[in-house]
Amino acid sequence: MADFEFAPWKADLERRTIGAVDALKSDLAGLRTGRANASLLDPVTVEVYGSAMPLSQVATVTVPEPRMISVQVWDKSNVTPVEKAIRSAGLGLNPITDGQTLRLPIPDMTEERRKEMAKLASSYAEKAKIAARNVRRDGMEALKTAEKKGKISQDEQKRFETEVQKLTDKAVVDIDAAAAAKEKEILGK
């Protein structure tokens, strides 16, 4: 029964579970909250040099004021494509062009829009929980298969299943905490 190595297998489950939490945090960072945040522009891609590039590869994004984002475009010929990409990103931002710098005033969010954003944050969290549960399911199935093949005993299977469940529970707590913090930020409470 010694040919089943749980440590590398558990490390893979941890990596996948942490990946689900990290993906959620990345998704949440892109949600508008009514305050300027450079990560708001992370999903923006710009058509330049014949290909789609992330905004961060053609410009510097800074937050000089609480309600203003500044985008300093490195190449003067890319100012128009960057402006077009920001306008078409669906973020509700209207750039003001000043040479190679784009200023993005962050408008106030209506209460209705805040509630929509909070719902979106909740749906992102639910998707992340589903991803974490899928990792748990894969782990549990692998343990059952290993036990049926005689690679581990029933006692080892139960012990490993407990560890897999603890991993999932920790991920769900992290997901809930990240979503609650973002909803609080969005709703301004």
UniProtKB/TrEMBL annotation:
Matching Gene3D superfamilies: 3.30.1360.40, Ribosome-recycling factor
Keywords on record: Cytoplasm, Protein biosynthesis
Family to which the UniProt record says this protein belongs: Belongs to the RRF family.
Membrane spanning stretches: none
GO cellular component assignments: cytosol
Upper classification of the organism: Bacteria, Pseudomonadati, Pseudomonadota, Alphaproteobacteria, Sphingomonadales
Protein name (Swiss-Prot/TrEMBL): Ribosome-recycling factor
SUPFAM superfamilies recorded: Ribosome recycling factor, RRF
One GO molecular-function entry: ribosomal large subunit binding
UniProt organism field: Polymorphobacter multimanifer
PANTHER family membership: MITOCHONDRIAL RIBOSOME RECYCLING FACTOR PSEUDO 1, RIBOSOME RECYCLING FACTOR
Localisation: Cytoplasm
Family annotation (CDD domains): RRF
Role according to the record: Responsible for the release of ribosomes from messenger RNA at the termination of protein biosynthesis. May increase the efficiency of translation by recycling ribosomes from one round of translation to another.
Recorded name of the encoding gene: frr
